[in-house]
Design goal:
mainly beta; about 325 residues; 2 domains; single chain; Elongation Factor Tu (Ef-tu), domain 3; about 5% helix; 6-stranded antiparallel beta barrel; elongated
Length: about 325
């Protein structure tokens, strides 16, 4: 397989003694480009400044002519101004594009040679060390394409172009907003907060867990502009509303932080029919349900008494 290596760099690689350094450039979906080098000093190659990160370790990668995925892993320590724990927890590097190159650090005018590029996959954190899966371009071929048959709705995000529900509207009958502007009044711990301004609507089944499986968008504070998933809602004896998050946000939550909280959906016909009703859709959003509620599954083999009086979708279980 031909390699597009600049002539000067190719001659250097073929020499008896080499002075090679690795270059890594990361382009997040949102935010500025990050560029590092394994060399002990900063390098500028092709107009890009690569910051010296000798502590960063990237595993070797093996490529071949077959359709096998070339994958590697990068690891390093958090450093202020480059990669922080907050960046990882916020999901800054999800689906980021990376490029790995070699250069001659004694003569950067020879340019660089790209030997691997692709997308960053799972990022994990252990103490003060992060590790990121670096998947080659063929990794895209291993991802599922199209829809997966499921009884539950498979819209990517509640209120998107497939769901079509207006999340800025209010629930018919209760007047409760599906998107609410809230303020943090008490920080219980890293994933639990009490809020003011929250109202609870009906899901058609008597539950008060209005925001469960919803999302919140931070409007102010250190997490402004980022989202958190909501695990559950609870009501205290004094009427206080508590939200529990699925994961801690990247930065500390403080009292007076403001946010938008969006009502959650369990992706079943019961919620689509009974909870998401407004003035425009008095019978719920069932017409836009993107699941297959009558899909035959293992329950076909349940005892007959468990199948008696089964209600149609949107009218019980």
């Amino acid at each position: 397989m031909p390699r597009n290596i600049p002539a000067g760099l190719a001659a250097h690689i073929a020499s008896e003694a080499t002075s090679l350094a690795e270059l890594i450039r990361i382009t997040p979906v949102v935010g500025s480009i990050l560029a590092f080098t394994s060399h002990t000093q900063n390098l500028t190659v092709g107009g890009q400044l690569y910051l010296s990160r000798p502590g960063m370790r990237v595993s070797l990668v093996k490529s071949n002519l077959r359709m096998e995925i070339d994958a590697s892993e990068g690891a390093g320590f958090f450093q202020s101004g480059t990669i922080s724990l907050a960046d990882v927890l916020r999901g800054k590097f999800n689906d980021a594009i990376f490029e790995r190159r070699f250069c001659n650090y004694d003569d950067v005018s020879q340019g660089g040679y790209t030997f691997q590029s692709g997308y960053i996959g799972r990022v994990s954190v252990n103490d003060n060390v992060f590790s990121a899966e670096m998947r080659g371009l063929l990794g895209v071929l291993s991802q599922p394409v199209g829809r997966i048959l499921s009884r539950r709705c498979d819209v990517r995000r509640l209120g998107d172009s497939r769901c079509k529900f207006d999340m800025t509207s209010t629930q018919l009958g209760t007047g409760v907003a599906f998107r609410q502007s809230l303020t943090v009044s008490v920080v219980v711990d890293q994933i639990t907060i009490q809020v003011t301004g929250a109202s609870i609507g009906s899901d058609g089944g008597g539950s008060t867990d209005w925001f469960r499986a919803g999302v919140m968008t931070w409007l102010t504070g250190a997490n402004a502009g980022y989202e958190s998933e909501i695990a559950s809602t609870s009501l205290g004896l004094g009427g206080e509303k508590t939200l529990s998050l699925l994961n801690a946000p990247g930065q500390d939550i403080v009292v007076s932080d403001t946010l938008y909280a969006y009502a959650g959906c369990d992706r079943t016909t019961n919620h689509c029919f009974g909870k998401f009703r407004n003035a425009a859709q008095t019978n719920g959003n069932l017409v836009n349900f993107r699941g297959f509620p009558y899909l035959i599954g293992d329950d076909l083999y349940l005892p007959a008494d468990n199948l008696v009086n089964r209600a149609p979708p949107g009218q019980g279980t």
